[in-house]
Amino acid sequence: MPELPEVEVLRRSLEPRLVGRRVERVEGLAPALREPLARRPLAALAGRRFVALGRRAKYLLADLEGGRTLVVHLGMSGRLTLVPGGSPREVHEHLAFHLDSGERLRLRDPRRFGLAYAAPTAALASDPHLAHLGVEPLSPEFDGARLAAAAAGRRGPVKSFLLDGRAIAGVGNIYACEALFRAGIRPDRSVARLAPARWERLAGALVEVLEEAIRAGGTTLNDFADGAGREGLFQVALSVYGRTGEPCPRCGRPVRRRELAGRGTYDCPGCQR
User: Fold this and answer.
1) Residues labelled catalytic
2) Where are the alpha helices (DSSP H) in the chain?
3) Most buried among 108, 213, 235, 244, using CB within 10 Å?
4) CA distances for 76 relative to 58, 163, 172, 212, 249, angstroms
5) Residues whose CB is less than 8 angstroms from the CB of residue 68 and which lie 6 or more positions away in sequence, other chains included
């Protein structure tokens, strides 16, 4: 599933090409994604220009004229790309915005776990998909103290805590594993046993790995591509995720994989104690 860096890469790749463009026609091509497209009519976006692109956690937020926002979640396999209007329709192309530039913004999602709907811009803070989300890890207020405060009263594994979007917005399995490796913290260590210094180390490692992933264009393991169809390159820099049995880049011990709360978890038994 695309995580925070991939959605931020998508935002940055689309913003200069979309802002100022007018939607001439909206074409719904699928009966349903995660939610039926007909439940949140998108045709009302026709005639409006894009004015800004933002992001909240793993959601892309495209503001249009008239106080409406297109909210997109890529699900497990979604791609949102801008292509020439005459490009052949792709298999699993479920939604298309035809623009005044002659281009087509298309959402392709083979597994149909994605989401696209229009919402009032002024009401996004209370939108049921967004209202529960926690602190943004790339925001100025994010630090070890904020992490520790969000974990107060909990006793579960620190990796499960990182994946809880109600505490930290947008962090998924890949970057949780990588941040814990950089911080030297076992994924199954209880949040109740982390000292302030370790929270600071973890916060710094998380910001570091997210920013590096964004600069590399994100991580493409299966489906992700940016708005121009370019795949990410951060997968070549992963230290532990997906590296089962390979030598740890720090100590040389084999990276291990195990299940933690139902998720494949990768760590180094030598460096993460």
Assistant:
1) 2-3, 58, 263
2) 4-18, 144-151, 158-162, 173-183, 196-215
3) 213
4) 11, 16, 12, 22, 29
5) 44, 45, 48, 118, 119, 120, 121
| CATH 3.65.10.10 holds for 144-267 | no
**How is domain 4-126 classified at the architecture level of CATH?**
Alpha-Beta Barrel (3.20)
Rounded Cα distance between 237 and 233, Å, is: 8
Residue 180 CB partners (closer than 8 Å, separation 6+) = 158, 159, 162, 186, 187, 202, 205, 267, 272
How many Cα atoms are found within 13 Å in the side-chain-facing hemisphere of 166?
4
Residue 37 pLDDT > 80 = no
Angle among Cα 91, 93, 95 to the nearest 5 degrees reads: 165
3-state secondary structure of 169: coil
Instruction: Identify residue 19 by its one-letter amino acid code.
Output: V
Contact 268, 186 (CB under 8 A): no
Q: What is the pLDDT of residues 81-126, one digit of tens each?
A: 999 999 999 888 889 999 999 999 999 988 888 889 999 999 999 9
Domain boundaries, the chain: 4-126, 144-267
Upper half-sphere CA count for residue 208 (Cβ side, 13 Å): 14
Other beta carbons less than 10 A from residue 195's beta carbon: 10
Residue with tokens 């045709």: 43
236 to 134, 166, 216, 233, 250: CA distances (angstroms): 29, 30, 10, 6, 16
User: What pLDDT, in 10s, does the model give residues 214-246?
Assistant: 999 999 887 888 899 999 999 999 999 999 999
Identify which of 57, 53, 72 has the alpha carbon closest to the alpha carbon of residue 3: 57
